[in-house]
Amino acid sequence: MRCSSAALIATLSTIAFAQIAKAADLPRKAPIAPAPAVVASTWTGFYLGGNIGYSWGNADTDHSGTVNRVSNPGTGTQVTNPAFAIAGSSSEHPCGVIGGGQIGYNWQFSPKWVLGFEADIQASGERGSAAVVHPFSTTVCISATGPEACIVTSPATGTLATTYEAKINWFGTVRNRVGFLITDQLLLYATGGLAYGQVKVSSVTNSAVTILGGNTFVTATAASASKTNIGFAVGGGVEGKFWLPPPGRGNWNISTLT
Fold it and tell me: What are the backbone angles phi and psi of residue 250, rounded to the nearest 5°?
């Protein structure tokens, strides 16, 4: 009986070890993957972009001059006459399509505040025109033997009618910005800085002079000038952004062994 009991115990032990070994080979469930890390949205960084829009404004032109030589209507000779001055101003309202690009940098220095720097350059189709008329009266030479030798003079009246066109060919700004975050994705900002641009003004002046007795003659003169003006720009607005996670973030693959 003792030998039989020993053999039975040994057999049971062998079965138990075999069951333990088999259990170790069973598939195990994979550990639960950690939750994706939450990446905080930030406005800090460089940016660039493009824009297109419509612009309008106001351009004031001052003009003045002195007329002291009038053509002899009979011979075309330029003769010195008593000088008369003209002066005035006109206001043009240029408008048109604009488009260009901008580049800048933002720094979010607190949870709710953003500082920035931005520069832009725009091509412009803005243009506007205006006309002014100057009446005058003077004395003209109707007979002369040379440029300074007038024989006969006559009173004359006339008008100088000038048409102006103002154009803004291009402009740009360099500005600082400060903004307050209404939400993580919405920025309310104010901006201000340097503005510069090329303005071109062209004109055509038609003069009509009527000499006592009814004789009238007309001349036309064209002129143009362009200049790069410097000023300042101020403004504000609301800006929004869409945040996209960088590659490798936001795409989680979880696999389980069974």
Answer: 90, -15
Q: Cα separation of 45 and 38, whole Å?
A: 19
Rounded to the nearest 10°, the torsion over CA 41, 42, 45, 49 is: 60
Tokens in use for 257? 């062994």
What's the pLDDT tens digit per position in 96-118? 999 999 999 999 999 999 999 99
- Which pTM does this prediction carry? 0.63
Residues 143-202: pLDDT tens digits?
A: 777 666 677 777 878 787 888 888 999 999 999 999 999 999 899 999 999 999 999 988
d(CA 234, CA 135): 41
Mean pLDDT of 13-42: 50
CB 85 within 8 A of CB 107: no
Q: Which residue's entry shows tokens 């006459």?
A: 81
8 A C-beta contact, residue 96 and residue 54: yes
- Parse the chain into domains and list their residue ranges: 43-238
163: burial class by Cβ within 10 Å (0-12, 13-18, 19+)? Answer: middle
